[in-house]
Amino acid sequence: MKDYTNREPTVERIRAVSSIQDDYSEFKNKTAIKRIFDPVSELYWTYYENITLKKSSKSDKSDPTIVLLHGICGTAGCYFYLFNKLTELGYRCISAQYPEYLTPYEWIAGFLHFIEYLNLSKPCVFGSDLGGFLLQLFVQRYPDSLNSIILCNSYRRTDAFSVSPEFRDIYGNIYSILPHIILKGLYIEYYICPKNDDYNQHKVELREQYAKEFMAYELDQLSSNDLGSRITLQLTGEYVYDKDLSGFKKDKILLIETNNNNIPEELTQDIKAWYKNSKVGYIKNGGDFPYLTRPDEIAVYIQVHLNNIKYSQENNYNKLLSSDSFNDSRGKTKTGNISRDEKVEIDYDSENSVINL
């Protein structure tokens, strides 16, 4: 097992990782962590919230709350760079950490309780890898509960994570009883610094390596129950089977993909084919944790996505008013137009379904 957390430290590496830790400590000192009790599972969700944010001049009060869901390795704090950036842009943001659920059904019920308890009206939810997978299962069941979803390096099925897909539901539960030291080693070897990372063959950007080391340190903040349950969830036999997601419009789905992530290629291609009419945002580098390595670019993608959804909704509403006015007054009443500048600051390249930065 390669343990990149115990490699010979250099002054540069120590400073870089220390810098991330210092930034994180500053974030935690300024932002209180909160908890919500799930009465069904008797478990707690933890989260950060910028409820005291100051709206920017460009921010619109109609912007939905953005909920951030971590992946298999994350915590509520792993999004702190992105959280701060979205706060600067004027968005209400909540970074949530889900507890040790063992089935997607428990997770779905828990997330529904979470957004209902916080009285979130159709939030936009951003989910990385496992978080994005569970999010799709949620939308498949409750499509009217969310405004839109953003899936970062995610997937819609889990069979490629197992050498024996037909039995993964059975042996997946074994991970929930393993001790922390074994689970931590598995996470470092297979999720944070996996063998297919080709560490010895390709140069890894320093900030990507620092992000890996930061995420490795964060494993100590998670219990063995947390770590084991996430692997159990990733090895579930459940999958997203409804291409329509129960009527959830494809323009409400944004896929974000880093070209050097470690999600199996077949799953990456599968989700893009599944949501072929949805937009895709590509980031050349950034690794598995672009919210740590490329938070500014991720924030731009989110802003563009929300602006275009807002424009689409307003445009449809104006068309409806225009149609009603025409029918009522035979075209004498006109509705106001929305200028293109009000739509977005950065446009989609709709021909190639790629967001241009």
TrEMBL record:
Q: What start-end ranges are recorded for coiled-coil regions in this protein?
A: none
List, alphabetically, the GO terms of the cellular component aspect.
cytoplasm
Instruction: Recite the UniProt keywords alphabetically.
Output: Cytoplasm
- Pfam families on file: Abhydrolase_1 (PF00561)
Q: Where is the AB hydrolase-1 domain?
A: 64-162
Question: What is the annotated localization of this protein?
Answer: Cytoplasm
Gene3D superfamilies, from UniProt? alpha/beta hydrolase
Q: What is its main location?
A: cytoplasm
Protein name (record): Maspardin
